[in-house]
Amino acid sequence: MTRSRIDADKPASLLPGTLDMLILKAVSLAPLHGYGVLLRIRQISGNALDIPQGSLYPALHRLDHQGLIATEWGQSENNRRAKYYTLTAAGRRRLRDEAAGWTRLATAIDAAMRATSEEV
Amino acid sequence: MLARLRSLVGSLAQRRTFEADLDEELGAHIEQYTRDLIGSGMSPEDAHRQARLELGGLNTVKDECREARGLGAFDAFQRECRYAARQLRRSPGFAGTVVLTLALSIGANTAIFSLVNTLLLEALPYAQPERIGTLYARTSGLESAEARRTVDGEQWEHVRDEVSSVVPAVATTGTSGANIRAGSVVRYVRAGRVSARYFDVLALHPVVGRTFAPDEDVPNGPNVAMLSHALWQNMLGGRTDVVGQSVMLKGEPYTVVGVLPEGATTPLEADVYTALQPNRDGDGRAANFRLVMRLRDGATWQQADAELHRALSASSRFQNFARENPGTQLNYHAVPLQQAATDTLRPQVLALMIAAGLIVLIACANIAGLSLVRMLRRTREITIRLALGASRWQIQRQLWVEHLLLAAAGGMVGLGVGALALRGLLQLLPERFLPVATVTLDGRVLGFTLLLSLMTCVLSGVLPAVAMGGVSLRSSAPGRGVIGGGHIRLRQMLIGGEVALTVVLLAAAGLLVRTLIGLQTMPPGFNPAGVITAKVSLDDVRYHDPGAFRRLLTESLSAMSRIPGVQSAAVALTLPYERAVFNGVKLGSGKEAGRTISTNHVYVTPRYFETMQIAVLEGRVFTDADGPDDQPVTIVNRSFARKFFGEESPVGRYLDDKVLIVGIVADTVLSAEGRLNPGTAPLTREEMVYVPAAQVTDSKMLALAHGFFQPSWIVRTAAPAGVPAQMQRVLSNADPQLAMSGVFEMSDLMALALARQRVAVALLAVMSALALLLSAVGIFALVASVVAQRTREIGILMALGSTVPQTMVRVGRAGVITSGVGLLLGLILCAVVLPAMRSVLYGVGVYDLPTMLAVVLTLVAVTLLATTPILRIARIDPVKALREE
C-alpha cells in the first residue's frame, strides 16, 4: 500500500552510467534543486525512470566537483531555502557528448534488436 | 582539473558551511518527499519513515557526497591524526624527547640558514644584480694563490677604453675617515671615491640632483660630492636646495651634486662620495681601485672575460708580473658582485651550515632509534590489529602520521628556537659584520624549515617502518628476551654513526677553540689597561703642510697631558690590532744590506712607548729633540731586528742610507685582515719600523698616509671618567674643524679584532655540545631499553649465579662498544674531514694531540654517564623475574 503510486508506474531500473547524463539533462531545462531533479527526471521520462534517491546527492556533488554544474541558493516553491543546480558551459558540452554517445549506442542496440532471420 | 581543485579547496576552506549546506539540502529533500507521500495518501509517520528509508542511510549518503568532493582522504587523514595524537599522548616521554630533539636541531638549522639566506642567497639590493660583476684574477703556477682584485690607474684606463661588453666603473678599495663641515656642524664621516657611472652600474638613481659626470671624473677635476640619504637628513636637514651648495670636506670646499635614495648602499658603504679622478699610477703608485661593471644588453660574461683579460694584459702591471714570475699565468675574469661581497664569510657560513646539517642527521638517528624501540613495544598491538584484518598499509600509514605529527610539532617549536637563536646570534655579531641588509626569518627560511621538518620525518621514519614490515602474526610473543636482537644491532649502528659525527664536530670545535685561545692569549706587547684612544681624520689639505701637522700634534698633546688623571699622551698613525702602512725601506747593513724590503711603518710621537707601555729592549725612545731638522732616527721592533740583523744589534746602523736606528722595542700584535695571503692568522706579530711623527716632512707622504689612515690620539689614565669628553674638548680647541670618530678603550678594540672568530667558535661549540647531548641521549636510551627488554634474561643469569657487577658489564657493553666504535669511526672521519679546516687554524695543527685527547676523554665521560641505566640491574629481583618466566 505504501508504494502504491510508484509500484503502479513500474519504473524501469536505471542503466549503469546514465545517472549523470540524466541529471545534466534535467538541469539543462531549468535550474532545479535536488528533489526537483528527481521529479523532473521522473516527469520527462513519463514516469518510466526512477532514480535511487541515495545516489542522487553524491552524483550532484560529483558533477559540481567536476565543474559540470553550478550551485546557488534560492527560494523553493514552498518558501524554503534551497540549493539550485544549473548547467555550466562545461556541463553543456558534456551533456552534448553523452547524448550523442547514447543515441549512437541506443540506435545500434535498437538496430541489432530489430534484426530478423532474413537479414542475417 | 582546475574546477576540481577549486571545488576541493572551497569545501575544505568552508568545511562548516559545506556540512551545514549538506544537512539542509538532505533535510529539505526528506521534507518535500514526505509532503508528497502524505499528498498521495500516506500517514505522516509512515511518510516520514518511508522518505528516510528511500534516501538510504543519511550518514552513508553524506559520506558519499564528501567522497565526491575529494574530502574523503582528508577526513581519513584527520582521523589518523587524531588517533596518532592520542597514541603519542599516551607516551609523553617519547613524544617530548622527540619534539625537543627536533626543535633543537631544526632551530639550530633555521638560525644558521637565515644567515646563509641573507649572505649567500639573497640578491644584492640592486636592479638585475646578476648583471653586476667585479674583477678577480686567477693565478696558476704560483706557490700561494694570490688574489688580485684591484687595478691601478693605468689598468683602469685600459678597461674604460677597451672593454665594450660591460659598463665599467671603479671605486677606492674602501672608505677613509674624513671631516665634513656644513655651516657650524662638523661630522666625522666615511668617505669613498667613485668614478663616473659607478651609481649607474649599481642602478642607484639620486633622489636629488645627479651623479658624477665623466668630465668631473678626471685628475684635477672639480671638487664634487654626493651624500648618503642619512647624512643629507641629519646634517643638512634634508633640504632640497642642497644641490649646488658647498660643504667643507677634507679642508676644501666641495659642491654637492646629488643625494642617494634612502637606504641605498654601495659596496663602499660611505656617507660621502667624491669623484675618483683617477691618475695613471693609482693611489700611491699601487693598485688601489676596485672595478664594478654591469653587463650591457646582448653581451655575455664570456665576452666580458675575454675583453677584460685582453685589456688588462696590455698594462705594465700585468707585464711586470709576468716578467717577475716566469712560468706563471695570470687570468683576469669577472665574478658576480654577490659572490665577491660574501667571499670571506662564505666558507665560515657554509661550515656552520654543514655542522647544523650533521646535527639534524644525529637527531634523526636518535629519533629513529627511539621509535624503533617504541615499535617493538607495540608489536603486540600491531599483531592484534593485523589479526583483526588491518592492512599493513593502514598500520604503516599510522606510523607515518605519527612521525608527521612529531615533525610538525618539532618544526614549529624549532622555528621558535631558531628565532630566539638568531636573535642571540645577531647580538653576538659585531656591527657591520654583514655586508648586506638585515637577517630575518623570511619566506625562504620558513620554506627551508618546512622542508627540513619533512626530511626529518622521512629520515627518522624509514627504519621503524622497515622494522614494522618485519612484524608478522607469528611474532606475537612479546616480552621474550630474544626479541629485537637484530633491532638492537641496528640501533647500535645508528648511535655509532651519531657518535662518529659528534666526534668530528667536537674535534672541529676543539681546534677552533684552541686557535682562538692562542690568538686571544697572544701577548699584545703593550699594556692595554687604562688606554683610551680617539681617531681623528687628518685627511685635510691644511695638514698636508708638515708644519701645521706638527703644530697640531704639539698643541693638542700638551693640552691633553694636562687633563686631570691623564698620565701621558701620544699620537700614532695606527694602533696595535690594526693594520699599518706597508712601505719600502732600504736596509743599510746586516744580512741583506742594500736590499729594499716592504715592511710595516708607523709614525708616533715621543711619548708613545711610555703611553702604551711598550718595552724598550735596547737603545732609546724618541724625544722632542728628534725634530724635523735633526738627524733622522728610527726605532725597530724585535722581529725586525731578528729578521734583518740576526744576532748583531741594529742600534747605531742606518736604514735608507741616512736614518739612524736608535732603539729596539718589543713586538706588538697587528691585524692581518685584508692581507693578500688568505692563510694568515687574523692577528700577527710582524716586523715594524717606528718613525718620529715630527720627522715626517714630506707633504705628499702625509697626504697619502692620511688618505688611508686616521691617526689615533692615545692617553693613559688611571681614572677614565670624563677623559673622553676632555679629549674631545682639547681637539676641538686645537682645531674646531676636526671631528672624532669616537672614543674607545684599547681593550675593546682588541676584543673587536677577534669578534668574528669568537662568533664562529661559539656557534660551533654550541652545536657540538648539542650533538654530544643528542649522542648521550641515544646511548642512554639504548642501554635503558636493553636493560628493560632483558630483565628476564638477566634474572635467569643472576639466578644461575652471575653477580650484579658481572651482569652490569654484560649489559653495559652494548653502550660502551657502540660508543667506542663510534669514536673510532669518528677519528677516522676526522682524518678525512679536518684537513679542510687548515685555512682557519693558526698555531694549531689539524691533528692536535691535546684537542683529540680532550675529545676522547669527553666522549668517555659522556658514555659512562649515559650507561647509568645499568644501575637498574641491581634492583632486579631474580626470583620475581623467574616467576614471570
From TrEMBL, chain A:
InterPro entries: Metal_resp_DNA-bind_regulator, Tscrpt_reg_PadR_acidobac-type, Tscrpt_reg_PadR_N, WH-like_DNA-bd_sf, WH_DNA-bd_sf. Residues 23-96 form the Transcription regulator PadR N-terminal domain. It comes from the Bacteria. PANTHER family: PADR-FAMILY TRANSCRIPTIONAL REGULATOR, TRANSCRIPTIONAL REGULATOR RV3488. NCBIfam families: padR_acidobact. This is Lineage-specific thermal regulator protein.
From TrEMBL, chain B:
It comes from the Bacteria. Residues 353-467, 766-878 form the ABC3 transporter permease C-terminal domain. Its EC number is 3.6.3.-. GO terms for cellular component: plasma membrane. Its main location: membrane. GO terms for molecular function: ATP binding; hydrolase activity; transmembrane transporter activity. The chain crosses the membrane at residues 94-116, 349-373, 404-426, 446-473, 494-517, 759-788, 816-837, 849-871. Keywords: ATP-binding, Cell membrane, Hydrolase, Membrane, Nucleotide-binding, Transmembrane, Transmembrane helix. InterPro entries: ABC3_permease_C, ADOP, MacB_PCD, Macrolide_Exporter_MacB, Perm_prefix_1. Signal peptide: none annotated. Residues 98-310, 549-721 form the MacB-like periplasmic core domain. It is found in: Cell membrane. It is a multi-pass membrane protein. It is an enzyme of class 3 (hydrolase). Belongs to the ABC-4 integral membrane protein family. This is Macrolide export ATP-binding/permease protein MacB. It comes from Luteitalea pratensis.
